[in-house]
Amino acid sequence: MSFKRMKEKDEISDKDWELIAKAIYDKNTGPIANEQTDAVPGFFKEEKEKEQLLILTNKVDLFYHLKKYREEQAWAKVESRIHSQSSARPTKFRILITNPVFRIAAALIFAAMLLVSGYVVIYSPSAKSNLLEVSATHQVLNTHTLPDGTLVSLNTDTKLKYPKKFGRNTREVTVEGEAFFEVTPNINKPFIIHAGKAQIKVLGTSFNVNAYPESKLVEVTVETGKVQVINKTTEPLQANELILTSGDKGTLVYSDNSLLKTTNQNPNFIAWKTHNLIFKATSLVEVIDDLEKVYKVNIRLADSKLNGLLLTAQFNNYSLDFILEVIETTFQIEAQKVNGQYILKARS
Predict the structure, then answer these.
(1) What integer is the mean pLDDT of 115-124?
(2) How far apart are the first and last CA of the chain?
(3) Does residue 332 register a pLDDT over 60?
(4) pLDDT greater at residue 1 or residue 56
(5) Fold of domain 275-346
(6) Looking at residue 8, what is its pLDDT?
(7) What are the start and end residues of each CATH 3.55.50.30 domain in the chain?
C-alpha cells in the first residue's frame, strides 16, 4: 500500500507522518526516538506497540548499514508483493494494515530482506567497478533487457558487460562472443559496443556482432538501420572506419588490421537466435556448417562425394532430427549418431 492510501485511511496529519518518517529514516537521529513518537497523538495504543516498533526498526537499521539498500526500489518491491498477496489472503491482510505500527515496521523489514537477497542475485563480484555481467555458457540467452530498454540475445560462450546505469552522453557495453542487438533509439545518447579491437556505434538499429576471441576477427552484420564500425587500434580512430547499412557486413581482420565491407550473403546469420534456416541450392557442406552453429553439434560427411549435393529448403524453428530426416529423404542418404557425433553417408 502506498503512503497516499495510508494517509487517506488514518487520522494522522501530514506533519505527524513527516515526524514519524524522519524518526525512522533520518541517518543522524538513528532509529525512532521516544520524544518524536510521543508527539504524535493516538499513534500508539499501548506502550507494548512502541517497544515492538523500536525492535523492528533497529533490525531495519542494521540491514540498511550492511547493504545500503535503495529506499525507492525497496518500496516498489514491497508494493508489488503486497498487491500480489492481498488477493490470496484479504481478511488477514486488512486486519494487519489497520495497525500503523505493523504497517510501517513490517513493510520496512520486508523491504530490507528483499533488497539484501536481491544484492546477491543481481550484482556480480565486479560490482565495485559499477558493471554487471551476463553470460551464456551452454545455451542461447533470449533475451536480456539493458537499462535503456535495448534487447540483447547472447549466443553460447558469450559474455556481456554493461553499467547498472548508462551515462549522460553515451550507452557503452562490452561483448565477447556473439550477440544480436535491438537498440532503443536515442539520438542524444549513442549506443557504443566494444568488441575486441572493434568499436561499434549506433543510434538505433538491429544488428549481429560476432567477436569470439579465438576467431581473430570481428564481424558486424546489419539487419536494420545504420552502424559505424571503427578499428580501435588506429589513430585517429576515424582514419579506419566503416559505415554499414541494412544488408551490409563489416569485418575487422586482426592479422592485418584491415576493415572490409561486403554484402551479407548468409541469410542464416542470426539462425542461432531464431532457428529459422533458409537454403537455396546450398551445398551440403555449407548446410552442415550452419546446422553445427545453430544446434551446437558435430556433423561429418563420410564420403567427399556428398559435398556437392545442393539443398533447397526452408526450416522455421524445426528440430535437428526433423531437418536430418529431410536431408536423408532428399538425397537418399542416412544419418547415424555415433559417440555424440552425426555421420552422413550413402545408403548401402
Answers:
(1) 33
(2) 73
(3) yes
(4) 56
(5) Phage tail protein beta-alpha-beta fold (3.55.50)
(6) 46
(7) 275-346
How many whole angstroms separate alpha carbon 25 and alpha carbon 81?
22
CA 33 to chain CA centroid, nearest Å: 43
Euclidean distance between CA atoms 88 and 80, whole angstroms: 14
Is residue 151 helix, strand or coil? strand
Residue at 301: amino acid letter: L
Among 56-65, 192-201, 302-311, which is the least confidently predicted range?
56-65
What is the DSSP code (8-state) at residue 214?
Answer: G
Give the confidence band of 82 by pLDDT, cuts at 50, 70, 90.
low
Which ranges of the chain does DSSP label H, i.e. alpha helix? Answer: 3-9, 14-25, 34-38, 47-67, 71-86, 90-97, 100-122, 271-274, 284-295, 320-331
- In 3D space, the residue among 171, 220, 170 whose CA is nearest the CA of residue 195 turns out to be 220
**For residues 96-113, average pLDDT:** 47
Q: Of 309, 312, 302, whose CA–CA distance to 335 is shortest?
A: 302
Pinpoint the residues of the chain covered by CATH 2.60.120.1440: 128-263
> Residue written as cell 587500434?
233
Q: Which pLDDT belongs to residue 63?
A: 45
Architecture of the structural domain at 128-263: Sandwich (2.60)
Mean pLDDT of the chain: 77
CA distance 129 to 254: 29
